[in-house]
Amino acid sequence: KIANRRKDALHKFSRSLVNRSGEIYVGNVKSSSLAKTKMAKSVLDTGWAMLKTMLDYKCAHAGIVFKEVNESYTTQACSCCGCISVSSPKGRSGLRIREWTCSECGVTHDRDINAARNILAVGHGRLAVGIPAIISLSDLAEGGCQIVNAAAF
Predict the structure, then answer these.
(1) Which are the contacts of 8, defined by CB distance < 8 A and separation ≥ 6?
(2) What count of other Cβ atoms lies within 10 Å of the Cβ of residue 123?
(3) What is the DSSP secondary structure assignment for residue 121, as one 8-state letter?
(4) Burial of 139 from C-beta contacts in 10 A (0-12 / 13-18 / 19+)
(5) What is the DSSP letter of 77?
(6) pLDDT given at position 11
(7) To 5 degrees, how large is the angle CA 94–CA 81–CA 92?
(8) Neighbours of 102 (CB within 10 A)
(9) pLDDT value, residue 92
């Protein structure tokens, strides 16, 4: 019964994302490797792999771009200037840091939103992480793209 409810919720969520988006870019999170950590129960309960599979085939059917991109260093790189500053969160100890300020350009970032902006920029081919690039909010909104925090689901 719980498995059916989870599948139903994932189907509804993936359909709503596909219906309101022109392009969907996701990070290449490997839930199988995260399942070997202390967060195993939480990772397996969310059904990340199932969500990616659903998004893939629903986007293909609807003619929407779906792309899995490399998300390395997306939480560390500044989404405004592209640099990985000294103040950015690094390593396991940096996981507790939820907000940080770039020491290069002075912009304050929420860790998850910064990563989402960087993943979107990598998906559009505008940013190779670590290479400076300017990304404006109007660039992020073009083409029907939205930044969606699936972890909040």
Answers:
(1) none
(2) 21
(3) H
(4) middle
(5) B
(6) 95
(7) 10
(8) 22
(9) 62
- Classify 152 as helix, strand or coil: helix
Contact 78/109 with Cβ under 8 angstroms?
yes
Predicted confidence at residue 29, as pLDDT, reads 75
Query: Which residue do the tokens 């507790």 mark?
Result: 96
> What is the DSSP secondary-structure string of 82-104?
--B-TTS--TGGGGG--EEE-TT
Predicted pLDDT at 144 = 44
CB atoms within 10 A of CB 137: 8
Residue 145 is predicted with a pLDDT of 46
pTM of the entire predicted model: 0.68
Q: What angle do CA 29, 71, 114 make, to 5 degrees?
A: 115
Strands 99-101 and 23-27, by their bridges, are unpaired
Which residues have CB under 8 Å from 3's CB, separation 6+?
Answer: none
Q: Which residues pair with 66 in a beta bridge?
A: 24
Q: Which residues of the chain have pLDDT under 50?
A: 130-146, 149-153
How crowded is the C-beta side of 23, counted as CA atoms within 13 Å? 16
